[in-house]
Amino acid sequence: MFGYTFGLMVHPRQTWEKMAGLSDEQIKRLLPYPIVMALLPALGFYIGTTKTGWTVVGEDVIRITEASAIPLVVLSYLALLGAVVFIGLMVNWMSKTYQVRSFPIKGIVLMGYACTPIFLAGMLAAYPIWWLDILAGTAAAIYVIYLVYMAVPVLMNVPWDRGFLYASAVFMVALVYVVVVLVGTTIIWEYIATPVFVD
What we know:
This protein has one domain (about 1-190). Helix 2 packs across helix 9 (about 130-155), helix 5 (about 40-50) packs parallel to helix 8 (about 115-120) and helix 6 (about 65-95) packs antiparallel against helix 10 (about 160-190). The protein contains ten helices and no strands. The longest helix has about 30 residues, at about 160-190. The chain has helices at about 5-10, 10-20, 25-30, 30-35, 40-50, 65-95, 105-115, 115-120, 130-155, 160-190. The chain is elongated.
């Protein structure tokens, strides 16, 4: 299950080709990967906001209470895992348009492995240095886009020209999901899971 992680980071094309050769049953066995990996950013966020803390101006370290961090950690985990599942289901749904034989778990596995850079970069939240986290998050997001554009033609077995259009449609769905999550985060942060700061 974790054997493809390193390959996706250093030689993604060969890794996707290797995964494309798996049977449907073998692909189904890869489903726990995003479930486990999505825990990394959530745990990093929890450690960074409750134990390490961050500074905005000066030397004052800002932390939130553990009790107020737990709902935020759970919600961030669900949002990240929800992105993988929702976009993965859309990958499967769009497969009919591109005359590809697929099944829901295949789309989820594709997105789960494509999000590997986000999962790994999320661990940096354990030591929140703003410029480093923003830099790592941006680099991870760019690499995820690259992985999606590479994965869709190979894993879904479509020609590269149609695969580019397919991957672009997946990317648009992801953008819509991000906007929905940002709006939801604002509402939840304000009315449901407001953080309590440590004095």
